[in-house]
Please model this.
Amino acid sequence: MMNSLLRIVIADDERPARSFLAAMLRGFEDVRLIGEAENGAEAIELIERERPDMALLDLQMPEIDGLGVVRLLKKSTMPIIAFVTAYDEYAIAAFDEGAIDYVLKPPMPERIAKVVARLKARVAQPPLDLTALLSKLAAQDPTAGPLKWIRASLGPTMQMIAVDDILYFQAEDKYTKVVTEAAEALIKKPIKELYEELDVEAFWQIHRGTIVNLRAIAKVERDWRDQPIITLKARPEKLTVSRTFAHRFKAM
Model:
């Protein structure tokens, strides 16, 4: 049976905006504000710890924005999402899909009341698959860019890894290995899907199962078959470039 209280968390990098929104939510007898986060990483930790019914996420947070939070959350802990945004057209595009609600900045009490009422009605419904919608919204987002953070398994723990710190990605069984200077971790995202989200100026696919960070390359040599072999700046292993992608290194 659904709890009579709607348990909500807020994520916004601006303290005045969080405080203003929190004050309005506390005015509803059937709403309980159970936590606030000032960035995306804190939002993910808060949501997965507290398991709220709903999350109000600012779309324009630095580093990990609202879309990034939803992408990185475990599906098993995904609450109902409402984005908080200053971009009217962007918000309406999300709302028109029917999967995500929105609150425009500055938030107005009547709008908050409508969002709370609608989302209370949806709490008992199964969680929606937001994959396609997130891709569409990212394409419309005026602040969107290439993938900046990866959430990966490092032993028994989950870790947030900045994409710029990753030396290369490599397919490994049903997972993709994420390799930094100091560690190796695993994600479930396939290489093909991952490559589409990376900055193509910084990351090149060099094999069907390998993507390398160009900034991590120390030198490129050729073996006896004339295939390029990559030596990394900060790792001892060498990466072989397949014939399919060898043309990228002809000038090296």
